[in-house]
Design goal:
The structure is a homotrimer of 263-residue chains. With 263 residues, chain A is of the alpha+beta class. In chain A, 17% of the residues lie in helices and 30% in strands. Chain A is built from 5 helices and 15 strands. In chain A, α1 packs parallel to α4. The longest helix of chain A is centred in the middle third of the chain and has 14 residues, at 132-145. Chain A is elongated and about 60 Å long. The first copy, chain A, starts with 7 loop residues before the first strand and ends with a strand. Chains in contact: A-B, A-C, B-C. Chains A and C meet through β2 and α2 of A and α1 of C.
Chain lengths: 263, 263, 263
């Protein structure tokens, strides 16, 4: 039995304590109750567009390539920022145009992009000024999940005009690369912005400050409590402590400089 | 493809760390695995019936109007409080009769109410004394989702006898209204019990203590860090800080008095 | 309408802040988007195999008996530990072979067990060394949910060789039993490893240190704030405070000794 509707995946900074995400799901189910909804995460730090962009770009590719991704981290809600939908070979993305799609746009070709100006696809009555997730993004996503093509949702826009965040760079060096911690996960693992491609063919080590950290294939290649550098599951160089917490051990944070040296 | 079963929406104070909510879902799926289940929230503060009532009343209306809402914040479990189901034009509500339906009952007409005394619709063997969510409310909800009418679930009761919480009032004044903070959300926004209808047609401001707070249409109408008053997405007067936290800025809490003055 | 696929239930220590669980769900949906997925809990303390075993054993029996349970608390990922699937009369269990199935194995008969060595059922390309939840356990679970029998997933193994945790014992005494706190829930209730069968027919009390705690049928049988001992909803002797927090009141923790005396 193949479902006829596309799946909807939701990412927000709303948390799950208040029923804001539930309101979005209710709106979607009220339009079509056969739509399957999956949570990506709702624990993006409040108004942290960069973290949202990182997580969305990390996870979308594991879903069916016609999935509708609704991403709402929206500090400019009710202001002048555009609300957009884009169609790509990796899925549909519905979001405020505030940089939240930066990571995705760096990975996929945008086939089509629209400014969500057609209120026929919004919730009635008129949208609130503070919750476009419920009043615009959720109903638009439900319609796309039902098969609505995005060109009817509003005015076509040039993908180049979509807003992109200025992210920290990873810079190649004579012996490897200099990058930075771009995310710390729940286990205290430090995920850098240095891609696997730079190191995967050779012996290498990582360096934070004056500390050199040997590379391994997996956490358990070393003793419990040892610092290790490895290629993480998302394809980035990662610093970890086997059965421990690298963030605390190293007192590292977002932006902490990490250098990789290939021997 | 229209599903034949009604959707079940769950609200509890169980949290998601322990698999209590999962046990309820397993019981529902064991009765009918085609039932779609949606979480409203499970992070109601432990045993806080007023918070549960507020959230349930805020969110139910976004769902299809035949949804089955199961709400379990139940400090009196195993004691003498009744377990009830009510049918309304806004959906079915299954819950302990302890005031948790106060907010919903203020908004919708109850068509029918029953005391859940018919054990044929409970989980077998006999219910535990401590977890009616799993043993009574979940199986009853599953049966209602399958189309069971509520009159077979137990003895009919008069809706007037359902327990209601004594909530703080919002009092009209010559120049506006005096109310109170009824909820603080994850962003630190202060949601009052002053309805939008009081202010929506005119210029107005809010006052907390001696501090006057100007009204705006949306958060971003002012500078970052500014205190603003606005109509929130649920239709209540709300105090916020643009890109900040009003609860911390004002050291406000539940019950803090808020006055609205129309100019 | 009966769904043709089995339900998949997920338990991990990944939390919901990072989209690791979402990646697993995306992989499952990419194999079969009609599979219904339910979360057991993702808030197992990081790498706490004993807590995972306790929760899984507490909850699996509420689900349909052909449910596929995927449990990933996996500090040894990428090392030499086996990845296994077992078929039982209570469902299918897919997990690392590190003791996480200890509780389940003590309750159900294992019909068949396999070492997950057949890479035809893994995600392509080759699995990461750090995230077998996404690359091996999730796709295997999706295939089992579609009806794949587990004998094709790898080499048959003897159930006796599955790793089991050495758990604290509950010891019978002349007048009852001596056991220990095996779990503290969100409400601060202390769940011991003393089974209901020991006490259910007589009058009894519990003792922690020199403090004697009377037994009741349910929390509300005593005044608010009173310490009580009762049979909890999972069938274990439990210590609670009516409308309060027994863990804080007693400064108890995992392993705290509890004695039960039958009068």
């Amino acid at each position: 039995m193949q479902k006829e509707t596309r799946m909807v995946a939701l990412l927000t900074d709303f948390g799950l304590r208040d029923p804001y995400v539930a309101a979005m799901k209710g709106v979607i189910a009220s339009i079509d109750r056969t739509v399957t909804m999956v949570d990506l995460t709702h624990d993006i730090p409040a108004q942290d567009i960069a973290a949202a962009s990182f997580h969305l770009a990390s996870v979308y590719a594991y879903f069916p390539c016609d999935t509708v991704f609704v991403s709402v981290v929206d500090p400019g809600v009710g202001g002048t920022r555009r609300a957009v939908a884009i169609a790509t070979e990796g899925g549909y993305f519905v979001a405020p145009d505030n940089g939240i799609l930066t990571g995705v746009l760096s990975q996929v070709q945008t086939v089509q992009a629209v400014n969500l100006t057609n209120s026929a696809y919004w919730r009635v009555p008129v949208p609130s000024h503070t919750f476009h997730g419920r009043d615009i993004f959720a109903p638009v996503a439900a319609h796309v999940a039902r098969g609505t093509e995005i060109d009817v949702l509003g005015d076509a826009i040039t993908p180049d005009t979509l807003i992109k965040l200025p992210l920290k760079s990873c810079i190649a060096t004579a012996h490897g690369a200099i990058g930075a911690v771009q995310y710390c996960d729940r286990f205290g693992n430090l995920i850098t912005n240095i891609p696997a491609a730079i190191v995967q063919d050779g012996k290498w080590s990582a360096q934070i400050g004056t500390l050199s950290i040997p590379s391994v294939q997996t956490y358990s290649d070393r003793q419990i409590g040892d610092l290790v550098a490895l290629i993480g599951s998302e394809g980035w160089v990662e610093i970890a402590v086997n059965c421990g917490n690298a963030k605390e051990t190293l007192q590292a944070e977002l932006g902490t400089i990490v250098e990789v040296a290939i021997r």
